[in-house]
Amino acid sequence: MKLNLLKWLIAGCCGLLAACAIITVNVYFPEKDVKQAYKSVDEMLLHGGEAKGEPGQTPPEPKTGEKPQSGLLPFRFSLVPEAAAQDTATSDALAVELSMMSDVLAAYDEMRARLPQLNALRNSGVVGETYQGLVSVHDKSRAAEAQPIVDAENRNRKTVITGMARAIIKINKQKETKEAMNQVLPKSAASYAATKKEEAKPGWWLLVAPDRWVQK
Questions:
Q1: Which of 5, 34, 125, 213 is deepest in the core (most CB within 10 A)?
Q2: Is the pLDDT of residue 133 over 60?
């Protein structure tokens, strides 16, 4: 009798473990919206958020009954060309979520203050953009000079990339678990790297694979 009960308990435990094993987290990753959100937040928090309209021009007031646009992106139509004619609700939501994180705001403050130094190093070929969304020393002869700036920049970028992963999980209405973060974080980094590659100026160096640099 006891042997049969033990067999049933073992079988039940095995079945429970099997059921748990097939439950996987599947977080939808809106790549296009993520890249647009990165660009919008960079425009507002890293590059000053200057509107590209006429001097003194202010955004029109919303009509009665019309939903207001995102408070973070008052110049959305200057950042997203009208010709694109696409719904930006998801990218706006991600941008707002990202901009409300205190650690992300602090990271952008530091990156904005460091930007002239970083641009000088990129312009001279000392550092370049990597496929992981970070920066790395390209000219090893000037590593001692560049490494402190590279390290500080990468700390800030990791904060932003992690913040985006958290925002993606939130708009998916899922719990921020380790499994969910492990699934989203590499994609978040890859999308950030893609935006930086697109924004890179001619002549800047890009690390496109381990130990493989190319010049844009």
A1: 34
A2: yes
